[in-house]
Amino acid sequence: MKKWQKISAAIVTATILAAGVPSGVGAQAASVPYIFDLSQSGTLKEGSRGENVKIMQRGLNREMGAELTEDGIFGPNTKTAVLAFQKTKSELKNDGIYGPATHKALSIEVNTWGFSNEVLKVGSRGEAVKILQLGLKDMSYNVAVDGVYGPQTRDAVIKFQERFPSLANDGIFGPRTKEVMDKVLND
C-alpha cells in the first residue's frame, strides 16, 4: 500500500470510529465500513452541500479518478462522477443520486481490499485467490501472485493467522481471517 493510501485509510477509519459506525462484527449490513453516516440526509444529490459531499467526492476521486474539486458542493461534475460510478455496478440504479445503495458500494470500494466472500483454501483458483495473494504480498509475505492457492499461499495465511490469537491457524481464508486481514490492510 502506498503511503498516501495508508494515511487516507487511517483517516477514513478514524472518521468511521468517531462517527460510531459499526466496525464489522455481526450482521452483514453492519460489516460495511461506511465512509460517513448517510442516515442524516438519506440521499445526496445535485445541490447538496457539506462534509459528506466532500468525503463522497474524495472517494470518487480515489476509486474513479474523477478529478473532482473536493469542495463539498454536489454540482454537475459530481453528478456525472456518481453516475459513472453507478454504471460500473450492475446492482445500482443509474440516476446520479447518491443514495443508500451507491453509498454502500462506494464505501466498500474505498474501505475494503476487495476480497471475495468465498472461503479459500488449498486447491482454490482464480481471481479471488490473486486478490488474497496481492494482499499478502502487500504485507510482505513471500507469495507468488498466480491465482493458485497452494502450499506457499497456505503457509503465508497461517503466518498471518498466527499474529492474531482470535484466528484459527488453519491456513483457510474464511470470513474471520478475511475480516481481520481487511482491517489490517486498511489501517
List keywords for this structure.
187 residues; mainly alpha; Muramoyl-pentapeptide Carboxypeptidase, domain 1; 7 helices; Peptidoglycan binding-like domain-containing protein; PGBD-like_sf; signal
The percentage helix is 40-55%
Total tally of structural domains: 2
Protein structure class: mainly alpha
Strand/helix succession: HHHHHHH
The proportion of strand residues reads under 5%
**Total beta-strand segments:** 0
In CATH, the architecture of the largest domain is Orthogonal Bundle
Question: What's the CATH class label of the largest domain?
Answer: Mainly Alpha
State the end-to-end distance: 10 Å
Indicate the radius of gyration in whole angstroms: 18 Å
Largest sheet: none
Round the mean pLDDT to the nearest integer and report it. 86
Shape: elongated
Low-confidence stretches at least 5 residues in length (pLDDT < 50)?
12-30
